[in-house]
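Example record

The entry below shows one chain as it appears in the dataset: sequence first, then structure tokens.
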Amino acid sequence: MATSVVMPALEMAQETGKIVSWVKKEGDAIRKGEILLEVETDKAVVEIEASADGVLGGVKSQAGDVVPVGTTIAWILAPGEAVPAEAASTAPAARTMTEQARPATPAPAPARAAAPVPPSSGEIQISPKARRLAKELGVDIATVHGTGPDGTITSDDITAAANARTAAPSPPPAATASAGSSLSAVARLMAERTTQSWTQVPHFFLVRELDATALNEVRAKLGPAIEKDRGVKLTHTDLLVAIVARVLKKHPRMNAMWGGKGIQLNPDINISVAMAVTDGVVGAVIPKADSTSLPDISVQRRDLAERARGGKLKPSDVANGTFSITNLGMYNIDAFSAIIAPPQAAILAVGRIADRVVAVNGQPAVRAMVTLTLSSDHRVVDGAQAALFLNDLAEALSSPANSLS
């Protein structure tokens, strides 16, 4: 039986994915688990694996195509099996989201006549994300032509309408194309997500400065053994992931999320670690970090970081995060406030560890200090709940050996 290859969804707000490249070609024999293609989403470029053995056939979307989530883009067939008839009949629909380059000369009339026609019911077809974006940018959806299936208005249509409204009079075509291509899809969609979070999520911030001497000591003590046994260098981020996850067990509201039905408690503690990639940041997830050993966390973090830099993250690598940590200490940043990644309720921003003069028992002393800034969603937690979590985290970091035992 033929198995469909569909555009995957990595998060609730995702509407489309862009095909970067096909690793396998039409007619290639494939085995379950082999990489079929690379897809670019608002989080990362991820590799899509084959879900069955067979032969790749009926490829309907090519590199550069932007395809709605859930759309069949190809089939895995048994040897000699034909592409399903219904797939062949709907092949043109899968291409309606293709990004089209603007031609240097006016497009011929027949091409314009082939545009999708909205349903005759009179109701404007628009995706939820596009509707939110239209409200933010002040775009009248009645004036926008939808390029999605059946004339559905997409977020790209809204962005294009907003750009056309604010553009200078009669810009040269070359200048318009250059401006439109200045941001990658990852950077553009990350901008949309952070704007949505900042404007819709009621952030509040708590700051705590603490002595990191014990954290440095436990890293120096455990690091050599982990490097020898597992071949990976223990980092402060690894320690933070392990300790934060264990403290979250006592504070389930900090590990909750805001959904359509209000506050939803997550059954697992999956720590999302912010990692810098070209033109953006991705949140690579270490699942069930509260029950994962420190050496395993260190190995997973290194593997995720390497694949993030190479654009090789899989869908499962960036899905289902419940709490985020972002560390800019390696860039010599003392302190900063981070934007929450919805639907998560909080993100912990970590500055550098640096020697500072502080009061110890009423006397000046030099200590290795670090500043933690907790950003929280006030719909999920209040100030007292977040403060209790941060206090418990500070206590755990002051005796990390006990927290990890």
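Notes for this example: Residues 96 and 148 are 6 Å apart (CA to CA). The first strand starts at residue 3 and ends at 6.
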